Structure formats: structure tokens, C-alpha cells
Amino acid sequence: MCGICCSVVLTGIGADEQLAGYSRHRARFEAHGPAGLTEELAMELGRISSRNLGRDDRVIGDHGKEARFPFLDEDVVSFLNSLPVWEKADLTLPRGIGEKLLLRLAAQELGLPGAAVLPKRAMQFGTRIAKMENRGEKASDKCQRLQVSP
After folding, report:
1. For labelling alongside 147, which of 80, 82, 103, 129 has CA 20 to 30 A away?
2. Domain Asparagine synthetase spans what residues (predicted)?
3. Closest by alpha carbon to 19, among 99, 129, 114, 77?
4. Residue 111 domain-assigned?
5. Phi, psi of 68 (to 5 degrees)
């Protein structure tokens, strides 16, 4: 341990939802083209607060940290919404290149060529932690064990 304590955690939440980072975005693009992908991204951004933000903020806060969501900053969201979908992602390109294209190009410009071509790997699957607790729950499910009965 380096001995330096931080109180703020920067998260990448919102990047996948706005820059077509999920495999379901590729499927939507293949089935419905750029218009279908644009519609899917708008829907995902619209529901991000109910699906992800509260959960992630609680988990981070439970560890005594404050979460910051730079990809959900109003100016960032406005900028990304002003761009046509083909400037944010090119899903005709292979996995690990076409999704989140705008971020990949920025990584190249910043001298991070290795990071620019890594395919997405969700933490719970990439670390295999999801296999440790298999209760048939999906990440989008509301946990019944934590809900107050009426």
C-alpha cells in the first residue's frame, strides 16, 4: 500500500451507454442500422439512473469514497448527443475497435495504443466474481432480499 488515501473515485459509467460499448449495441446495429443504434443509446442513457447510478454510488459510498461520473457530466453528455452515432462508434469494425471509437481514438492520441484496442470486459465477468454467487439474478434485477415488505 502506498499510504496515499483518496476520497474520490472516478468511474467510467456512461461511456458504454453513450458510445455503443455493449454487445447488444452491435446486435441492434446489425438488425436496425444506425437509426436503431441511436434509438437504443438514447433509451440506455434515459434509464441509467434507475439501473446503475444509485447502485454504484451506494457501493462506492459504503467504502467511504465519493463517486464522480465524468461521462455523465452535462457538458460531456450534451457534446456526445450532438454527434452523429457514426462519429462515436463504427460497429462495422471488429470488436475491440469499433465500439467506443471516440474514446479509442483519444487513447491513441494520448499515447495509449494498448488501451485503445482492448475489448470490453465487464468486471464481474472478467474477474470471474459473478461465478462465485450464482443465484439466478441479473444485474438489472432489484434485489428482493433488500426490499422492505409492505
Report:
1. 129
2. 33-127
3. 99
4. no
5. -125, 140
Give the number of domains in the chain: 1
Q: How far apart are the first and last CA of the chain?
A: 46
Closest CA to 15 of 82, 86, 93, 89: 89
55, three cell numbers: 447502485
Q: pTM of the predicted model, to two decimals?
A: 0.76
Residues 6-64 pLDDT 10s: 899 899 999 999 999 999 999 999 999 999 999 999 999 999 988 888 888 888 889 89
- At 142, the amino acid letter reads K
The DSSP secondary structure of 56-83, one letter per residue, reads: HHHHHHHTT-EEE-GGGSHHHHHHHHHS
Contact at 8 Å (CB) between 37 and 97?
no
- Can you give the pLDDT at residue 124? 55
Answer whether residue 80 is part of any domain.
yes
pLDDT tens sequence across 99-132: 999 999 999 999 999 888 887 766 655 555 556 5
Domain of 47 in residue numbering reads as: 8-101
CA atoms within 13 A on the CB side of 115: 11
